[in-house]
Structure formats: C-alpha cells, structure tokens
C-alpha cells in the first residue's frame, strides 16, 4: 500500500519468485530437483513445495550401456588414398540439388506458359 497527501493506492502482487530461492536451486547436485505444484478446489494438496532426489541404479545403467550396439557408419568419405572427401561430396550434392531445383522451376514455368488458363498467372516479362 502506498499513501501520499492526495490519495492511497493498493496493489496485490502474486509473484512468488522467492518461494524457491535461486540459492537453493544453484546449490543442487546431480539428480536433485525442487519445485512447486498447484492444486484444484476439490483436490487439495497439503505439501505443494518439494525437494527430491532421483535415485539412479548405477549398476543397471552400466549394464544397459554395455549392451548398446555401436551405430554403424553409413557413408565412408575416404577415397582410395585415405583422403577425406566429405566436403567435396557435400559440395557436389549441394550443386546437384540446386540444379535440380532450377530444372523443376524451368519445367513448371514452361508448363504454365503453354497452358492458356495458367499463362495469365505469369508476369509479362517472363
């Protein structure tokens, strides 16, 4: 509430940023988390603020990790001399895609130009 000589003003703030202080969040270790939940009128929750820890079974995680299969290499970019040709291949693919797009545009423009119904959609300069 603010009061001065002429009037009085009241404001209500619902900001709850200090509910879980940043210092608490910044000091959490791996697997720890904090939070707050809201409830419904007909389903009240007594404990709305929580501080928890995720318990990880390290042995199970290690066993699962050992069972992972290696991701196969799909494309090998080395030539017969052992040189890496990835940038060259990417450049060639880029140029091919660019040329394919130009060919599609040219073909469609010709199709539109040759169709009397569609020709009016083209600019006069084309």
Automatic annotation (TrEMBL):
Keywords: Cell membrane, Membrane, Transmembrane, Transmembrane helix. It is found in: Cell membrane. Its main location: membrane. It is a multi-pass membrane protein. The keyword Ribosomal protein does not apply. InterPro entries: T4SS-coupling_protein. GO terms for cellular component: plasma membrane. PANTHER family: CONJUGATIVE TRANSFER: DNA TRANSPORT. This is TraD/TraG TraM recognition site domain-containing protein. The lineage of its organism: unclassified sequences, metagenomes, ecological metagenomes.
């Amino acid at each position: 509430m603010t009061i001065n000589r002429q009037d009085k003003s009241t404001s209500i703030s619902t900001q709850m940023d200090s509910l879980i202080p940043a210092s608490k969040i910044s000091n959490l270790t791996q697997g720890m988390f904090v939070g707050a939940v809201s409830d419904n009128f007909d389903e009240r929750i007594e404990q709305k603020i929580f501080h928890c820890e995720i318990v990880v079974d390290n042995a199970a995680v290690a066993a699962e990790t050992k069972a992972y299969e290696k991701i196969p290499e799909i494309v090998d970019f080395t030539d017969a001399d052992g040189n890496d040709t990835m940038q060259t291949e990417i450049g060639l693919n880029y140029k091919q895609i660019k040329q394919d797009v130009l060919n599609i545009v040219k073909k469609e423009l010709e199709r539109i130009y040759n169709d009397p119904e569609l020709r009016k959609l083209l600019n006069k300069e084309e």
